[in-house]
Amino acid sequence: MFDLSIFDISLLIACALMAGLVDSIIGGGGMIQVPALFAVLPGFPPATLLSVNKLASIVGTIGAAIQYSRANKSPWGLVIISSIFAFLASVAGAFLVTQLPTQWLRGALPFLLLALLIFNIKSNAGLIHAPKHQHHKQKAIASTGAGIIGFYDGFLGPGAGAFYKIFYTRILGFDFLRSAAPAKFLNIASNFGALCVFLYLGYFDWKLGILMAIANLLGGQIGTSIAIKHGNVFIRRGFFILVTILIVKTFYDAFLK
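Structure (tokenized):
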């Protein structure tokens, strides 16, 4: 495992737990987990850090997806076909990120986070469940969107879970609770696609990945219970505060440090 202090390991575990909690409710846990990894481990290959994030996210998201699917019936046909597109597109995105210069990635991160924050704040969809499309058209739109977001998830990833949820609410017309399980399964598919590429190319650290995965799983279980029982207003506000802090932090690391 990377040469880390107890403080650094504790910080990464805390961020993974919070990422799992936030991701299980609104999506976008990678906004917390990825910047934390880049901040604690500067200079390491981004693909290695992204692969650790992927494993942690997969484990946490599986736990959340199971809970959501028990609470609400999922459109499995739609989920399966769009998950295949998300997986394949993520493989392409992950391969691309291993072939590009890495410094620009750190510089782009705060601006990407800011764009995602604004996009999430402006999203008011998902209060009423009213699917906008049916049958083949719904599957075609869902697969296209899953492919686009899946490619982004493999290439970088922060906010992909939020993108999947917002795609289901804004474009497909699902409400937040019914979009939760499909969005989670798509996120699992694209995370797994990227992780396969990183593992094949040797970009990974198992010990750190497993530690963060356990923390992410615990956070996901807590967050899912809160979402099902109490809704997401309180956590959503906390989510915006946390991302704002991370925007300042990553901007400082990239341009002022």
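Residues 18 and 218 are 9 Å apart (CA to CA). Residues 46-71 form the longest helix (26 residues).
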